[in-house]
Amino acid sequence: MDASQTGDKQNELVQHSVAACQDAIGRALENPAEAIGLARGLGAALNTLQLIGLDVQKGEAGIAAERAPH
After folding, report:
1. Taking a C-beta distance cutoff of 8 angstroms, is the pair 10, 1 a contact?
2. What superkingdom heads the lineage (predicted)?
3. I want to staple 20 with a disulfide (CB 3.0 to 4.6 A). Which of 42, 45, 50, 51 is the partner?
């Protein structure tokens, strides 16, 4: 996979995570009684964004090193 494909996949994951956060916020505003469950979902989406951020910081060489057989 070339660098542009990797970047596209990362952008897709970020967009998906942001959409999940926006959806959770919207549902919490519509139905406050479900806010705790939605907050947990929001937390999971934010954790995903943090993991993506860590992979981006590693760069392609760092990710490839993790995937290499040990």
Report:
1. no
2. Bacteria
3. 45
